[in-house]
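Posting for a labmate who doesn't have an account.
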Amino acid sequence: MTTRRARAVFAVTAVAALVVIIGLGFGMTFFSDEWAFIESRSLGNPTTWLPAHNEHWTTLTILLYRALVETVGIGSYVPYLAVVALLHVAVAMLVFALLERTSGPWLALGGGTIVLFFGSGFENLYWGFQTGFVGSTALGLAAMLVTDRGPTRGRAIAIALLLLASLATSGIGIVMSIAVGVEWLVDRRWRRWVPVLAGPAAVYAAWYVAYGVAGITTQRDPFTLTALLDVPGFVVSGFANAVGSVTGLPGILAIALGGLAIAVGVREALRGRLLGRVVGVFVAVLAQYALTGLVRAQLFDGQVDYARYTYVTGILVLVGGSALIGRPGLVMNQRWRPVVLALGAVWFALAMLLNGILLVAGRELFLTRSDMTRALVTVALDPAPPEGAQMERSLVLVPAPVSLQRIVAAYGDPRGDALVPFAVRPIPEPLLVEATRRLIEGAAVPGAE
């Protein structure tokens, strides 16, 4: 397949994926963390732009999200889904470009298509709040793409600015900065430009001292022996998830394949062909799960399996794996070409099957979450609240009823959807009963002991 044809096929597939993802999101509404941006952040109040959201620096995400709230309100969730879907397609396009440079059009088309329908990361496709994770990933991948063009002063500064923007979008910016920084340290061409990256690192450090330190222990103190002991198992499980997400292989086989890739990388290093991109990605994936394990491992069961994290690490594994493979000469060898193509077809089929299943399963999960949100909002806005209702107490997944009343008056009612009213399903009666109970007795705080 020629490069031009692969690009054309991918472009058509990207448009189709955009339509499919937005369409699958019809009927969803605002969930959990989003309400913090709706309730507590303000486009017109700069003092709300810098405080951490949990442990994340989210200034650019706040500005983007609040721009949507101020312009389109909260009467429809479709605009929020459209923005995160557009960012996701941008991520897939960057992955395609990176894979095309390292492994040619065949692998770029296969890998890019898997990312387009990346059900392994469904939280970042169906949750408007995840413009943060997806945006940070896109900015980091853009920095990698500029890195591929070779070192110059202008490119070094551009990359530093991209990484600074990634850091100011979510904590995933740390992971992407590690990937690029380690690659520069390994790559002799870029090594002399590493001091340029001290700029974004210093800005992030200043933000952390001023704001981040107050947010990082909100959920859990990471500076304990218990937190450290959680890290190794968290990293191994996370690495298996990342490899499995882009290969379709189950845990033990994913770990075996990842181990094989590490062995190949070590062999190349011993031969004097240490690949900066491969090392950078590997360290970044380990750092992602190590940091997440430190901060969040004890909050909920199954944290390591959360799709929001697999989205980032799976994509990094795909980019690093492509760099390790390089341009496979076997495809051009007539004797081995049928075998290589068959293996490639099996890989693509397994990965697409897994991600398709998770894409559908994730949709149902978020629709169920939307049912709960609408139930809580419904009882909170009831003009005749039940006896014993605590109208000033947070419902955790949504703000306190008195706050919700102000939000709805200012920005619209999220119980329906002004753009796709037909997609909103009736609220199950048991959820209304549970929402009423929470209004009276209080809602449990996730992760609280």
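Reply:
Got it, the structure tokens are right above this. The chain is about 70% helix and 0% strand.
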